[in-house]
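Bug: token stream looks shifted between consecutive jobs. Job 1:
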Amino acid sequence: MALSKSASITAKGGAITWVSSRDYQKNMVNVADPGRLIQQSYYAGKLLDRTSAGQNPNWSPWAWNPIQGGGVGSWAAASEFRREDMTLYSETTPKLWDMPDEKGQALMRQWVSHEHLIPNAVVVQCEFVSLRDKKDFWGGTITNPQEVPACYFTRNFATVKSYLGSGRCRKESHPPGPLWGKTKPPRKALACFDGVAHGIAVFSPSSTQHWNFGPHSNGLSDDPTAGPCMHVAPIDRANLALRSTYRYRYWLVVGVESLIESSLEILWARYADERVVATEP
């Protein structure tokens, strides 16, 4: 399982920009704009109309939404990116999604490594540190949905299945959006397959809500820079305090359906009880 093909990852906030496998050597990740990729994305505070300050009218009103890859029309850059033994580490100051080039008062750290004895799976550890000012625009702490994480795949991975355990799957469907579809996979895993035999699954045991999923636009393009894509986002709900830390892990699994199923069985046995760790000073 390959994760990156170039140093451009540092220019995209340390987000995951490439996933491929021995049998599918093209990029499975849609990288058409900073809101795509496989990346950290968080929400806090109240919805605000800031169009007079340059907020994109398509995303107004909007909450405080720091994005690892960048905001509308601008990419974030990883301030640190290095390999530590067999782990890729990045550290990023995110940008706010709804603004053309505004940094979020936050820090995102990420560790990516292969899962032990599962060569077709990687584990991604995410850490988010909120550094908001006490009197910023968005106000105090309220409950918001958190994407754990936000994933965008190429549009050809159009067959979506929830993994139910014991080799059983449930096919999920939704017309092209957004709005996205919603489903609650009982084993906290959702897989997307192309029309041949290749697939990519997301396992996020920290998710607590219905997942968002579905296609954007029509067609079955395998172009990672195309507008059409497939979206998957496990969801948690959390109160992100002005000064707080939020940590969780998720797994990406690639392969044919039977291989993905067997790998998800192992991951469920190991990590089914894992949850978000949130702390305040």
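Job 2, same session, no restart:
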Amino acid sequence: MFGKLLAPACFAVGLASLTQGAFAEECGDVVIANMNWQSIDVLANLDKIILENGYGCSAEITIGNTVSIMTSMIEKGEPDIAPEAWLNALPEIVSRGIAEGKLISAGNALSDGGIQGWYIPKYIADAHPEIKTVSDALKHPELFPAPEDSSKGAVVNGPSGWGASTTTSQLYKAYDGDAKGFVLVDPGSAAGLDGSIAKNYERKIGWFGYYWSPTSLLGKYPMVKLDFDAPHNAAEWKRCNTVVDCEDPKVNDWPTDKVETLVTREFKERAGAAMDYLKTRRWDNATLNSLLAWMTDNQATGEDAARYFLEKNPEIWTKWLSPEIAEKVRSSL
């Protein structure tokens, strides 16, 4: 009698063990790349937790720069996963890897892509709903006082040496910012750029300039990205908007960066159900900005932030997994 009552439960436990064993056999050892910026730090740790606890993988994280990681994935087949690869930053390396079949895209890591452009604070946008585009903002130098001369408006550039600083300089030239009563301000460094936004935000002073997403700063200080008054023209972007000494740049929209999860061919062939997770797993900039702001405010590690996300946002991540796998991950927290 008792044997008959217990048999279904024993069968279920046995089946679960066999299922996890099958996942582990397929997945095996997995090396996940962390290229040492905040958002990939969180995502690499999130993948580690889910692959280990949901799919029985034996996962570890390796740290390196983007070029060395991508090159190693193509030439050596390791690490197995690059959770957040910004394709526009390394078009030739990634294109070669994909063309040769050595890199496989599992799909978007960021559902709305990596975003760069010119921003204003939300409190300025709310107070001046007529400002929708860059040209709208350039009609109001009085709203964005330059730090050294408040009689002029300021467009704050990216730090010197960044590709974004070249592009912002060229777009500023295309808009004829000087003639509109503005000056182009060099923030000096990434910290200087962040500091200029934080300082103005705390004092509710207008700010106008280059920034990008996802970042913790935009999670803490809500900003509004302005339209560039023209659709993106890839040929013009390459010809002049990104070239330092080009004399005749045109107004052009900043392209959205493709941010994808890349895996090696070898991992795809053995990953089994774990590959289904990577194909489904994605989040948007708003979710990630908020998480990165929490991470910064609490001086949290990537693992801390990954666990915080899993605890606070089951309505997001459970959709990436089957109910059985989701319950395994939930039980591990």
